[in-house]
Specification:
The protein has 366 residues and is of the alpha/beta class. The chain contains twelve helices and 19 strands. Bound molecules: 6-aminohexanamide. 6-aminohexanamide binds at residues 36, 92, 94-95, 125, 158, 213-214, 217, 351-353, 357.
Length: 366
């Protein structure tokens, strides 16, 4: 593996493909830390296994597990899913596995962003995060991909979504948050995204999902489903604080053209009724000196937008809500050639994210 310094993906003819383009495989990280995953992570591990199995129906899945959890992961996961021992601080492959870029010849390379646990010492969610930050390089070594060093720029994979045709979606609340790159102007951040994702147009949504502890990652509120088309998390309940947030995003999307000059087609994806953490769930979480403690009744950032697009299926969360079926129907209509699989994801949500946040696709080389 070569660490590329001195040139950018754009200069070398690389750009990030859309998630709906073909994948070589997918990376997940086995959950373990007892201050993120209630009751030692037993239920979370079962949910991760279901997600891994569903993705493995149409692509190669690699699960990273700690030395302590390796045997357990190997026992819980089927043989066709590869388990590798790799240390991490937690289990958010979307955010600190590499972002992969690809050129016209089909060569795939990684981008190694800086990771500081969603805000570092300003408002980050745990300390330290050194093992997470080291994963992108280790994974590029494992997958024999060269990697661009961009550790001087803090970015999580869940804070970007691309259409593969030059457009990138982000939220202002996340990318402009003081815990990321406070020394940079909005224009400088845009320029970095252009250089390292190979995009030309950045669409800035103002915000994300209410109470999303990532400073409102875009992958929980809005996602491309096809070039020129997005889903947006939506509620009709005007008394819900999420209403104004989704409305503000809709206003931007309705006024914005993508990199190809297309007016975006916006599909509303209903939200479940507010999902809150119970007293029993809170009791199952160990304390961490720097991670905000969850309190009973706290609203979790539940959203169906946090789905993964695998080669032949869509893996989406369910919350045991009447809107589960409706959201599934919307996604099935938007992805007629992929089977939509819904997995009960409350045990992932409690950790602070969902199915998209725990996965990272590797584009197919060709
Ligand atoms: O990308 C995500 N949604 C990850 C959030 C991690 C929160 C840590 N508790």
């Amino acid at each position: 593996m070569r660490i590329i310094k001195g040139t950018t993906p754009k200069q070398d003819g690389f750009c990030m493909p859309a998630e709906y383009e073909p994948h070589e495989g997918c990376i997940l990280i086995f959950p373990e830390r007892s201050d993120s995953w209630q009751y030692g992570g037993y239920a979370a591990r079962k949910a991760f296994v279901q997600v891994a199995e569903a993705i493995a129906r149409s692509e190669k899945v690699t699960v990273c597990a700690s030395a302590k959890q390796y045997d357990n992961a190997r026992a819980l996961l089927p043989e066709h899913i590869r388990v590798v021992e790799m240390s991490s601080n937690d289990s958010w492959a979307r955010d600190y596995a590499p972002t992969f870029v690809k050129n016209q010849a089909g060569e795939v390379r990684g981008v190694d962003w800086g990771f500081n646990a969603w805000g570092g010492l300003y408002d980050g969610l745990y300390f330290p995060w050194d093992m997470d930050n080291a994963m992108a390089r280790k994974l590029c070594d494992l997958f024999s991909k060269d990697i661009y060093n961009k550790r001087d720029f803090i970015l999580e994979g869940g804070s970007i979504h691309v259409d593969g045709e030059g457009t990138c979606l982000v939220t202002e609340n996340c990318l402009l948050s003081p815990g990321r790159n406070p020394q940079m102007t909005r224009e400088e951040i845009e320029e970095t995204l252009r250089e390292y994702l190979g995009v030309s147009t950045i669409v800035w949504l103002p915000c994300g999902i209410y109470n999303d502890e990532t400073n409102e990652h875009v992958d929980n509120i809005c996602a491309f489903t096809a070039p020129g088309e997005v889903v947006l998390a939506w509620t009709e309940d005007e008394t819900d604080p999420q209403y104004a947030m989704s409305r503000a995003c809709m206003d931007v999307l309705e006024q914005t053209a993508d990199a190809k000059g297309r007016k975006l087609k916006v599909h509303k994806l209903p939200l479940p009724k507010p999902v809150t953490i119970t007293e029993d769930e809170c009791e199952g979480l160990d304390a961490c000196h720097d991670e905000p403690t969850r309190t009973p009744g706290e609203r979790l950032a539940a959203s169906y937008v946090n789905f993964y697009i695998a080669n032949e299926n869509i893996i989406m969360p369910g919350f045991g809500d009447p809107a589960d079926a409706q959201a599934k129907e919307v996604l099935q209509g938007l992805f007629p050639d992929r089977e939509v699989v819904q997995i009960y994801a409350r045990d992932i949500l409690i950790g602070g994210g969902n199915i998209h946040c725990i996965t990272q696709q590797i584009p197919a080389s060709m």
